[in-house]
Structures are given as C-alpha cells and as structure tokens.
Amino acid sequence: MQDKQKVTLYLPPEMHRQLKIRAAFDAEPMSAIAERAIDFYLEHPETVEQAACLSDSTHQVYACPECTTPVVLRAGKMVSLKHQPVVLSDDGLKVQPATREELVGAGV
Description:
By secondary structure, this protein is mainly alpha-helical. The chain contains four helices and three strands; from the N terminus they run H-H-H-E-E-E-H. It has one domain. It has helices at residues 13-26, 30-43, 45-52, 100-105; strands spanning 61-62, 71-74, 77-80. The two termini are 31 Å apart. The model has no long low-confidence stretch (mean pLDDT 76).
C-alpha cells in the first residue's frame, strides 16, 4: 500500500452529496474519486479553469491529451466527436446556454 497523507476537506453539502452518490454508484471510495480529480487538476489546470468559465459559453470542445478524439459537453456528459464532421458548422444550430443547474449536475 502506498503511503498517503490524511487531509480534511470542507465541501458544500450538495457537492458532498453528489460525491457520495457517485462513489456508491461506482462502488469506489470517495477519496479515490477526489484523488483523481485533484490529480487531473494538478496536471491540467488550464482545462479546469476553462470549464469553470463554461457558464459564459454556449458550447466548448475539449481536446483531452489522454483521449484520441475531441469531446464536447452535451447534457452534462462528455461526448466523443469521433464520428462528427471534421469542421463543425453552427449554421442553423440552436445552442442554448447551459443553466447553472446543468453545470452543477455535470460536476463542472
């Protein structure tokens, strides 16, 4: 077993509830999920900062360094653009800004 340091984190009640539900759903300790999230933030802080600004955007395409294709946030889930046209055109595309509840529900 790796040496680990115990820490105390203070989370808003709703975030704690969502983390607890996700951990139960994935049959994984909350600390493992938090560790992965913190690790991702430390490796890709610019991506996390951009995601924090999503409330001002109608859509955002992500190029994850560990993924083989770009992804987009759709209905609170990351969706691969692997089978989409190379150039995305927004002609006639009606994109509504995400609501705060959608962003929070998506864990953003």
